[in-house]
Structure formats: structure tokens, C-alpha cells
Amino acid sequence: MCRHLGWLGAPRSVASLVLDPPQALLVQSYAPRRQKNGLMNADGWGAGFFDDGVARRWRSDKPLWGDASFASVAPALHSGCVVAAVRSATIGMPIEPSASAPFTDGHWLLSHNGLVDRAVLPLAANAESTVDSAVLAALIFERGLDALGDTVAEVGERDPNSRLNILAANGSRMLATTWGDTLSMLRRSDGVVLASEPYDDDPGWQDIPDRHLVVVDDSHVELTPLKGTA
User: Dihedral (C-alpha) 75, 77, 80, 86: value to the nearest 10 degrees?
Assistant: First the structure.
């Protein structure tokens, strides 16, 4: 499991999204409020953003709260599209920087909050790690993000115990799915935040129903039920 966050809108500092809010990913790494599985997220973290259309990442296998270097640089990193996550490793999975989201195909940044049996996923030579999230990310990249909803529904059917909350962005679009865990949305005047849980107590946060696809394009937001939803 993990907690993740995405931003699409006007340029903001990475720190203003990941570190500064009262219940930011930094706090969620040791005291999440809505996490259904696991007590903390101390098995790594990652922050990705787009810089003139180029996807850039900073990932670690250490707890976010112990990285003074990132804390010192994050206020200087600004972007209109950010994907970040803190990780709680699935039992038996390796703890290494390459296992931390966001994963990328060079065009998209992608995070997976949940777990899935790797036996239901095709082998992927381009997976960044052997962990379930990396293999799932490789499958999603291979099939294309336009098919994200169908891919998640198919994997969910193959593994009924899976949890498949995906968050992905390419600099101009942001996509997310809810499948077994929480996701909230905050529409601001300058953009949209999607997060596993609210990073503050702003009354504008909206909970996304389970088994839905979220598409954010500029200021437009669309929610669609996923296949298999009653």
C-alpha cells in the first residue's frame, strides 16, 4: 500500500504539495488518517514532475521524513504537473529506490496504491522493478493510458483481492482509478489535486466513489464508473 498525490494546474512548488500542508505526504508517511491497510509508509518515496515536458523523478527507499536533502530542494522545484507517493511495501517485495513510485515510460508518471498478485500479470521486460506495482505499471504503459479503465477492470477480475488505485499524469492530463482504496479530489481556482487522502481540512475536498475512473484535462474533471461496477 501507499499514499499518493497528483497535481495538474498552475506551477506550484513540490514542497507546497508534498511537505508543507498539515497532513501532507510527509505526515502520511508516519501517520496517515484514512489508510485501510498498514500503519505507516516508511519503505520509500518518490516525487515526479514535468519540466518543459520532460518527466523527472527523485526516488528513495528511505522514509520521506528522514531526507533532509529533498526537504531543502523541494521548495525550489516548481511544476504544473506533479505525481508523488510514499510507500508501504507489500510483504515479500523488495525495498529499493526502483520499487518506489512514480514509474515512467518517458511520457507518463504513474503511481499504484494497492497490491496485485503478480501471477495474473503478463511478464514485462520493461518493468522497472520486480515489485507488483512496477509490473502493473509496465502493463498499463504497454496497453496505453487511454485503456487505463479497461486494464484495471481486467486485472481486478483476474485477482478479486487486488487493490488498484492508479494515479498517472503526462503534463497536460491526469488520470486516476479507485479500486479498493480511498481517493479524494480538491478543485482549486488554479488547478486540481487528487490524493489518497486530503492533505488539509479544506471543506472543498470531495471523496471519489470506489471503482471509478477520473480524468482531469485542464480544468475539466470527468468521473466514469469502471466495468464491473454494480
Answer: -80
Render pLDDT for 159-193 as a digit per residue (tens, 0 to 9): 999 999 999 999 999 999 999 999 999 999 999 99
Does 118 score more than 60 pLDDT?
yes
Peptide bond into 225 cis (omega under 30): no
Beta-carbon-side half-sphere exposure of residue 104 (alpha carbons within 13 Å): 22
**3-state helix vs strand vs coil in the chain, percent to 5:** 25, 35, 40
What is the radius of gyration, based on Cα positions, of the chain? Answer: 16
- 110 within 8 A of 62, measured Cβ to Cβ: no
Q: 124 with 155: CB under 8 angstroms?
A: no
AA identity, residue 135: V
pLDDT digits (tens, 9 = 90+) for 24-53: 999 999 999 988 887 889 999 999 999 999
Which of 194, 197, 168, 164 is closest to 178 using CA atoms? 164
Contacts of 184 (CB under 8 A, 6+ apart): 194, 195, 196, 197, 198, 205, 206, 207, 208
Q: Supply the residues annotated as catalytic.
A: 2
CA torsion, ordered 32, 14, 147, 161, to nearest 10 deg: -20
Element (DSSP H or E) covering residue 141 = helix 132-143
For residues 78 and 83, give the distance between their C-alpha atoms in angstroms, rounded to a whole number.
12
pTM of the predicted protein model: 0.96
